## 1
Amino acid sequence: MRRTLGTLRWRLTLTYIALLALLLAGLGTYEYIALQRNLVDVRVDVLTGNVNEMRAQVERLLPRASRTPAGVNALFASLCARLNGNGLPNAADPTAPERTVAAALAAAAGTSAGVVVYNRLLQPIASQPETLSSAAHMSDGALRTVLRGAAAHSAPEVLDSQSGNQLAVAYPLRSGTRPPCGVVQLSTPTDSIDAVLSAERTRYAIGGGSVLVLALFIGLFLTSRALRPLRRVGETAQQLAAGDLRARSNLPRRADEVGSLAHSFDDMADRIESAFAAQAESETRMRRFIADASHELRTPITALKGYIDVMRRGAARDPQALDAALETMGREADRMRVLVLDLLTLARLDAQRAMELAPVDLNELVGEVLDDAGEGLPAQMRREVNGTPVLVIADRNAVQTIARNLLGNALKYAPEAAQTWSTAIEDGFGVLRVHDDGPGIPAADLPHIFERFYRGEKTRAREEGGSGLGLSIVKGLAVAQGGDVTVRSSEGFGTTFTVRLPLAAR
Ligand code: ADP
């Protein structure tokens, strides 16, 4: 239960219901007070009307002979004389003026009304109904205000009397235009006002309660709908956390906050998936590389170990056999050295070590590499390298390694075949082309020759074949310098490698 109420859906709905309840309560209270005031005002107006009729009522109660305005004046004069003289109740005198006034007002206000007449000391001296002791009295303050003549009537007060709650108002009693000589309190039961107010309260409680229940259901429905995408994102996050990297929320792209959250979430999941895939691939590549490298190193080490065993068994004492063994051991050691150097170059490329880039003239560098090769070059050797420098931004040693590897391959796989070395400037790149008229690379090998440890089908068995790292180093170095390498080859046509490096001044 607590978990249910703690969900965002319930929290939002309950907050909104609480606000609505507060609003309804505020509005209800305001309306209730206004209605109450209205009902009281109407009742006070009726009472005031009754008081205004007082003289006419009094006249009707006078003996026939004095039933004139003058008779009424005389009655009020005698009433004021009594009140000013602080006259006390005189139950024995049924014609006492205060009793006439009380009776007149009671007749005007109806049977349920109550009347109390007070003297100047605010002592009740007559009442209607006549049991004076049981009559409820207004506060002294209200009575005094009226007695001072400060107001046409007092503010209404609710009195708790034996016959239930009464709404009471005090009015001044005066003879002619003189200041008030006493006070008359007129009261009427609040039953009908209470009934209206009680009905109003019930109506409001039922109406407000229904509105809140309805709002609760609508609120739950609407928040549930609005939060559905959020739930979907949450479920997807759980799937991802459980290892399902292909999980996506796949929500339609919408402009609202939840829509853009879902979209960003899916983007993030895409990136996580590809990062994991890249890491897995890199680990596989690394494992294969280590396995291949160990395999390549094992061959010369085994050979060296074999020769050492042979020498131990006596070959060392035969000078001829010793020479041959040392010669082969030297070759194997060289092979190992080259292999280790190649592996080191590749490791540096993988670590993305910064290269020492500087302007290098391709023509000059090609000249140096070919001149170094000296005698080893084939008879048919063309150098289409003119005098204009082809200045590229490159690492001198790296470009030398590239040229040497290409030359080495041409000599290995196209021995004696004609070679053409040319340089050019094309599309903002300095270009080195190495072509040989050799046997060409079979189509099946072509897509793989730049892969590490890849050796062509035909060359794999051959003694002079290398470790399969040469071209991957060429490619790695070219790319690391902002260039690339491509190959065109077919059996019969020969092979052309094209290396492009960024020009020094584009
Ligand atoms: P390796 O160290 O074995 O020479 P490379 O990466 O340099 O490895 O070359 C990969 C393969 O590409 C070689 O085994 C060979 O089959 C092929 N190859 C490279 N250069 C040439 C060439 N000029 N002519 C024919 N085949 C070549």
## 2
Amino acid sequence: MDGSPDKIQAIADEISVCNKCPLCEGRTNVVVGDGDPNARILIIGEAPGKNEDLQGRPFVGAAGKYLDELLSIAGIKREEVYIANVLKCRPPGNRDPKVEEIEMCAPYLREQTRAVDPEYIVTLGNFATKFILKTEVGITRLHGQLKQAGRFRVYPVFHPAAAIYDRTKRDALEQDFARLGELLKGEGSAESSG
Ligand code: URA
């Protein structure tokens, strides 16, 4: 953990002027990321939604409120983590992003991950988990399993937005965050990935 606020700011400046792919059509803001650049935990979501696009910050809508509850289950405050998305712009009409759009945006997250240099990466849902673990295995099978990817401990969980109205996912997500709190206090071992 040797996050550099200057490095993070340099990446944010670079992303904020990005105009390279159609994801920026109709956007209000580029949602770079938010939080402590020295965070022990990096949380990775998918892409900004409508509220995030309007406010320019990740997870400020209903999923964000629920994420705050989940963080408190793990005994963590939002200011103590860094939150970023794989995609920095909301796909127009909220459609699925195209492969080439994902490829253009992904290097920014890689740079952010290196700059924050967290101990734990918590991936929210299939999209972020596939991106970080380079796996086709779905989140239903992977959630709650601590993996090692390079120097990072990766902890995949369901996406909070998917769990808001699904009791089963909600229970699993809350259990997974309770375990995350335990992992942060003590130490669990991670299964190697890739
Ligand atoms: N869902 C995400 O994946 N990211 C956000 O920032 C908000 C909702």
